[in-house]
């Protein structure tokens, strides 16, 4: 039986901080149980390490350079989708779907709920709310949909575990605490290797563990009601997050800690979608094509990604590379990245600080392992990491830093430079068309182009399709090329 409904659950700033992804100190029994009966994508990546660009990609199937959302959509930033009709709600509504949004909306311009509904293709939108509000509204939406008879698309977003200001925070700190939960150090502290393991980091991790566990219980309540209503066998359930943890060295960076996300999918009635773990790298832009595939709907020709069904069901790889980008968050910090199964290339187009601070705090309780003070070091123009030997990306192997010349590493560097340039051209990346106003921007472009000239274009067939998200005819890039001046 082909499933007819979609329940799309998502949350803020989670990365892969779940028990099912090997984090033993966080209590996530509901998502872990859900994962046991679903497909867990172990190497899923967002297109951006910041909220709005990544969500715009997730819900349109396009890279940020094409959606127009290169920064945050709330004021005073005000980035917005160039074409709101590309949202998945609009697309499914054309096939007769009942569409509803509950909780987090951060993928297009922040407006009153009725305006968001009209622009994105939702029948009803109710934004905001803490976990209990989101659960109550999502359950009510499921109950209403069960009596409707039409297929439904329900998009429900949890605010937790985003940092939130409370009266329990120490002065100068915005932590992970919220109503109804506190720190949870009961299983220990899973301090990531990219942070100094000290008292400040452990304090933050304990709060984070409490917030993630609180969110997990909300997901469990929603899934239980879905089952009680008899909808589980006819509903595709997706769970993911926007990007990595809101910790220094993760969110706002193009390292795996910033781009790596949990992605779990339950697809009833399709072979191979139960109790599977997939090790191949996949991207958020692959989610929309996958959704249309498993629903039995015509493929979306404009999607940048590709359906993951062949990977899950036949073991056929769908991509050689995943790509990441950052342009704006709290300031202009243009970066691009390309990742293969073994290596990562990060290109920094501006002399910004080494690590943008994602803590929203004046007082920093945790700090990157490779920096004494997070704001004094400046990023190099290019960074290269061996993900097999150095999965935490702590040892830069870019040209000029390696101890000795390594022809194999040089060839890898050249390949990734070519792949990144190819992707930037296909997405009409404004960093290629904007006049380089800084020496760093020129240096970054020159490095990429020098590698391409020296080694030629990528051989045909080396990359699985990652074409433009708006079809073969490229959209006019001028609005994006001048967008930096508007923001």
Automatic annotation (TrEMBL):
Q: What are the residue boundaries of the Sulfatase N-terminal domain, all occurrences included? A: 5-296
Keyword Calcium set for record: yes
Q: Does the keyword Calcium apply?
A: yes
Q: What keywords is this UniProt entry annotated with? A: Calcium, Hydrolase, Metal-binding
Residues covered by region (Disordered): 451-487
The UniProt entry's sequence similarity note says: Belongs to the sulfatase family.
Name of the protein described by the UniProt record: Sulfatase
